[in-house]
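Appendix B, example 12.
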Amino acid sequence: MDKIIQARLRAWRGEPSGDNAQAVAEAVSRREMDTRARKVLLSPRYGRGFAFEVGYESPEMGKFVAEFEPLIEAVETGSGLAKAQAWGLLRAEVAKRWPEVEHLPNVLEASQAPEDLIVVEVEGPYRIREYDGAEGIETLADSLRDYW
């Protein structure tokens, strides 16, 4: 979610008026968003997160890790060998795309192991929320739905 949308949401949460709701809608409609359905990797256990931890470096990197298809397929099939191979492929791909982040392999190693990950389906813009290592999905619709 970009900074303009975040600012409009904060204003609306502070004062849920019609004008602030309109400002959120206008900001969202101006931005091209990924509205397709897709699968995302999450760490549901407490301890250390997965994509959320990597996303500290950059949201783009966190999204890449969360949506890494070879690991998603391996987690869905449940094959230990496939998970290990996909994990190695993920590490190599991240190192190639973001060579300036020298400590990233350590972050990946310290995050949840592939055996502890789950796959969830999400539609539209989302972000990964984390509490004490346990990750969950929050969609744009979720962030608007909680207000009366």
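The longest strand covers residues 37-42. The two ends are 22 Å apart (CA to CA).
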